[in-house]
Design brief:
By secondary structure, the protein is an alpha/beta fold. Helix content is 22%, strand content 28%. The chain has 13 helices and 30 strands. The strands form 5 sheets. The chain has an 8-stranded parallel β-barrel with strand order 1-2-3-4-5-6-7-11, surrounded by 6 helices. A 6-stranded antiparallel sheet has the order 9-8-28-29-30-27, with no helix packed on it. A 6-stranded antiparallel barrel has the order 14-15-18-17-16-20. Strand 6, helix 5 and strand 7 form a beta-alpha-beta unit. The two termini are 51 Å apart.
Length: 619
């Protein structure tokens, strides 16, 4: 297999703490939101915190990307430009962009990444974005391996970033207007109200209820741990974990799990990848396990084509780790057959016969029995609910595992070789890190014959790098005679060498560059509907200058009556087994089907089988 660029594990950062822990647990880069203009309005951060994260990340040659990926009002353009300059001066490595008005601004030479909000799923669009100066594109989550590979082969110089883990939006990103339509909260403005996580009835054209109160648009979570090698082989260089609203324990665990898997892959022979894009090695106080963090059950989504099991009609809540099946039960207790150990304080859940999820806290474990409390409205109440035998039981909170993650759970160090030598008028220490950076410190000190052998103490003192980001892989001593070397002098030489090496690392750290732009590049279409998300004059001017004479207003600016408000590769007809093209049987119900929400509103479903897309239409 052809050798590709270094692989990057990209982690979410809700805040400075999450960003630091992501890097300590093995991330090569993090993405974080600024105070404004990010696609997760609830995950904003001050410029000071971002600058602090940059300083920490760059110690490890890890990168920091900031999301500036909402569509913008005309009144926000000047503030956006000023923010981008502030981010550049803070050392940010790239910004993620959705609104093309950004390219009309007076920008610093900061790298541009095309956000997944741009709905990037074709060779033509990737080529266009590259011609506009984007060095990287974040691909739509719905793409298969073959589609990703085809884009890479057609655009080999464009970095491809792909989501590998976390929550799934049922609609193509940037093409969902349900939250704006129903709640006046735009997903393209960072204010998604998660319409897709609500329960719906599925009804036919005659008003017959096919399903009642099911989460028909709420997908399982993505998990591509077992497909990383395939993704790298298809040309993906940045493997992205979703979760800028997730807590720090989630970030620690999931990042560590993916980092460990990537380490295994990069250690293989055969040229699949040439290593990670940052420096250092992480050691953990726990064994990573993604099932122990928030999840709704897992899927690899459409990576291997349209397969069964990509949908979930069960719950938008966390299921967690499968623990086995229920055995005997009594008033307030049950047993679980599965061979896994439970702890006091664990959270467990299961579905009843009606498909409703029930959650419990384990008050105590005694002789194989779990004595339970049910949490409801903040009150713990003992329940005697009968639990049928052979009911699948899940643990959605592992008390002992979370205790481990609440403490310092990772130590990341950059390997250095240390050489101690005598000089004409004293002594010197030479440090070389794993990236080839070298630093030397020296002091004048009279050479005096030692009364006792010095080598062991020199090696011990120069190995004490515990307060720095470095770890000594070897310490060699090269002296013309066994001179006396005080421990205080060794400490001073070590400190000076570490400080110099950190400065050298920063001096030689490469900063990503923006790609070259072609002002005469043509957009792949001559018409942009509301799906183009054009909300301001700058974006409109951009598209006009790139060959699009007809540009409609964004849905957020002007609602379109009867518009499709979701565009989904997920298909309810397929999920129900009624897709004849994929081996299903004809439906016994008459189309068109509708989704009916709890407030009585109905949303018509349309199935475009030629392009394998399901749309959801507003009333």
């Amino acid at each position: 297999m052809k050798e590709i660029a270094r692989v990057e594990l990209l982690a979410p950062a809700r805040n400075l703490e999450c960003g630091r822990e992501a890097i300590k647990h093995g991330a090569d880069a993090v993405y974080i939101g600024a105070a404004r203009f990010g696609a997760r309005a609830a995950a904003g951060n001050s410029l000071e915190d971002i600058a602090e994260l940059v300083r920490f990340a760059h110690l490890y040659y890890a990168r920091v990307y900031v999301t500036v990926n909402t569509i913008l009002k005309d009144s926000e353009l000047a503030d956006t430009e000023a923010l981008i300059w502030d981010l550049y001066r803070a050392g940010v490595d790239a910004i993620l962009v959705q609104d093309m008005a950004v390219l009309r601004m007076n920008l610093p030479p900061i790298a541009l990444h095309a956000s997944t909000q741009m709905d990037v799923r074709s060779v033509e669009k990737v080529r266009f974005l590259a011609s506009c100066g984007f060095s990287r594109v974040v691909l739509a989550r719905e793409l298969s391996l073959d589609e990703i590979r085809a884009i890479h082969e057609a655009c080999p110089d464009v970095e491809l970033e792909c989501f590998v883990h976390g929550a799934l939006c049922v609609s193509y990103s940037g093409q969902c207007y349900a939250s704006e339509y129903c709640f006046s909260r735009s997903a393209n403005r960072g204010e998604c109200a998660q319409f897709c996580r609500l329960p719906f009835d599925l009804v036919d054209v005659d008003g017959k209820t096919i399903l009642s109160g099911k989460h028909l648009l709420s997908l399982k979570d993505m998990n591509r741990l077992d497909s990383l090698e395939e993704l790298i082989g298809a040309g993906v260089v940045s493997l992205k974990i979703e979760g800028r609203l997730k807590d720090v324990s989630y970030v620690k665990n999931v990042v560590a799990a993916y980092s460990c898997r990537l380490k295994e892959i990069c250690a293989k022979n055969g040229g699949l990848c040439v290593g990670r894009s940052s420096s250092g090695h992480s050691e953990y106080t726990f064994t990573p396990d993604v099932q122990k963090s928030f999840n709704r059950g897992f899927t690899d989504y459409f990576l291997h084509g349209r397969t069964s099991g990509i949908h979930s009609f069960d719950t938008p809540k966390s299921l967690g780790e499968p623990m086995g099946k229920s055995g005997r039960s009594g008033p307030g207790w049950l047993t679980v057959d599965g061979g896994k150990e439970f702890h006091n304080g664990d959270g467990i859940c299961f579905f009843d016969r009606n498909g409703e999820l029930h959650g419990y806290r384990v008050n105590r474990v005694e002789h194989g029995r779990l004595f339970l409390f049910e949490e409801k409205d903040g009150v713990s109440e003992m329940k005697g609910r009968f639990i049928p035998e052979w009911t699948p039981v899940y643990r959605n909170y592992d008390h002992e595992f979370e205790k481990l993650l609440s403490k310092e759970s990772a130590d990341r160090r950059i390997s250095v070789s240390v050489r101690f030598k005598d000089t004409e008028d004293g002594f010197a220490v030479v440090m070389e890190d794993e990236d080839g950076n070298m630093a030397e410190s020296s002091v004048s000190f009279e050479h005096q014959p030692a009364k006792n052998p010095q080598t062991a103490n020199i090696q011990a003192q120069l190995s004490k790098l515990g307060t720095s980001v470095f770890a000594a892989s070897e310490v060699s001593v090269q002296m013309s005679a066994d001179w006396f070397v005080p421990s205080s002098l060794l400490s001073e030489l070590r400190r000076m060498a570490v400080d110099t090496l950190i400065s050298k690392r920063d001096e030689y750290r490469p900063r990503p560059e923006r790609g070259p732009a072609m002002p005469d590049a043509k957009y792949p279409s001559e018409r942009l509907s509301y799906l183009g998300n054009v909300m301001n004059a700058g974006a409109r001017s951009f598209y006009h200058d790139h060959g699009v004479p007809e540009v409609a207003d964004a849905y957020e600016k002007q609602h379109v009556k009867g518009a499709d408000i979701m565009f989904c590769r997920h298909c309810i007809r397929f999920a129900m087994g009624w897709c004849v093209r994929n081996g299903g049987t004809p439906s016994p119900y008459r189309e068109p089907y509708s989704l009916r929400s709890s407030d009585g509103r109905q949303f018509i479903l349309h199935f475009d089988c030629t392009h394998c897309i399901m749309t959801v239409k507003a009333e």
